[in-house]
Design brief:
With 166 residues, this protein is α+β, with helices and mostly antiparallel strands. It is built from three helices and four strands. Strand 3 and strand 4 form a beta hairpin.
Amino acid sequence: MKQKIFMYLFVFSILLILFQYVNSKRIFEAQNIHLKNAKHNVEKLQDSLSVLQNEMLEMSSFSIDNNEDAISYFERDEHNVSELIPLIKDELYNSNDFKEQHPIIPYASSEGRKILINSVKLLNHKWIIADFSDGQYWGEIFLTYEVTKDKKITFNLVESFLYPFD
C-alpha cells in the first residue's frame, strides 16, 4: 500500500511539474513577444523623435530665441530680453486697436470686418514676420523695428502681400 501511495505521488508530481513547465513556457513566449513589440515601438518612437527634433531645429533657425547675436544686441543696450520680447509682440498686437485703417497693414479690410494681426514671429533684433486676416482675406507682412533706450518701439513696413481670394 505504501508503494502505491508513493507511485501516485510520483505520477502526481510529474504531472504537476509538466503542467508548470508548459505554463511557464507559454508565459515566457508571451513575454518575449511583448518585449519584441515594445522594442519595435521604442525604435519607431525614437525615429519620430529624431525627425521632430530635426524639424524643430530647422524651424528655430530664424528665431530670436536662438539668436545669441540678437539677444546680446539688446543686452548691450541694457534691455531685459525676457521682458522686451513680449513687450514688442504686445505693442504689435496693440496696433490692432484702431478706428479706420490699420496703422501697419497697407490693405483695407472687407466690408464690415476688421483686419487684424494674428501671429507674430521675431526673427532677430531688427526683423519681424507677422500674418494678418479679416476672416475673408489674409496675408503676411515683413517689418523692421527699433527699440529705443526708453523702450519705445517703432515699426516700419518693408514688404507685404495678400493671398489671392478664390
